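Data deposition worksheet. Section B asks for the primary sequence of the deposited chain exactly as it was used as input, without tags or linkers unless they were present during the calculation. Section C holds the resulting structure in token form. Section D is free text for depositor observations; keep each observation to a single sentence. Incomplete worksheets are returned to the depositor.
Section A, Depositor: J.P.
Section B:
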Amino acid sequence: MGRSWANDLARFRKIPTDTGSTCTGPRLFTWCITASKIGRSCGGPVEKYSSSDIAGAHSCDCPARANRRPHAGQFHPGTPAMLAFRLWRWPAWLHCPGWRRILQAIVAALAEQQAELSGLLSGLDDTDWLRPSRCEGWTVSDVVLHLAQTNELATASASRRMAEALAELGGTPGGRGGTVDDGADLLVARERGRPGPAVRERWTTSGEVLCRRLEDADPHQRLDWVAGQLSARSLAATRIAETWIHAGDVGEPFAWVPAATDRLWHVARLAWRTLPYAFARAGRELS
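Section C:
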């Protein structure tokens, strides 16, 4: 079990000895402080060094702490090494466990959103998969195929291989200079016509893989996506939004509406955070 920084600080608190001297810290120039040659041990008071002089007589005054006298008698060899190790590991401190818990909560919401849509798809027959969806020109199967493709792209983005994944799918986000929607339509058209159960299996697998990959992602890592870069947290939130929106597209011919649950809080936060970007793209000022 590792020690927290608070526990490390506790080791440097003032510890009185039997003669009233103290060990101060955690500043570097006060680690070797003492006013006595007698200190504590598990077996009782011990002599720190051999000398016929009075305690601290051969040490010099510490200008920073006039009532302390530094010398090597109370030096703790492990302390500087511990500090060096902590400084070497400094980048890891930036990834506070709180950020990871937030990302894991968003990923859990994404898994729940996918499970809700999966409940609808599990009861479809071959005819249902060919019904027109709310997306113009797309069937139910096309929408689910699109979700599977974008899940795979999101997984590739979290794995730092977005360009390779696009090449494998044979398309680009802009679709040969067109819009993002044109690119998505091109990708679906290239794989259209597969059986509904096979499309559902591909989408289910892609969703599970994506959730596992996002759970292990660095919360602060910038990932490539369609219109630029975004954090792993924002990418997970966009997948919730897309899954929820397209669930409504799929449910339209069956009079089925996805539930408005607390999962949408992540989508609302994402929309609020991206308002400045959206207004800037439209050439308008956000007041």
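Section D:
The two ends are 51 Å apart (CA to CA).
Strands lie at 15-16, 22-23, 33-34, 38-39, 46-47, 69-70, 222-225, 228-231.
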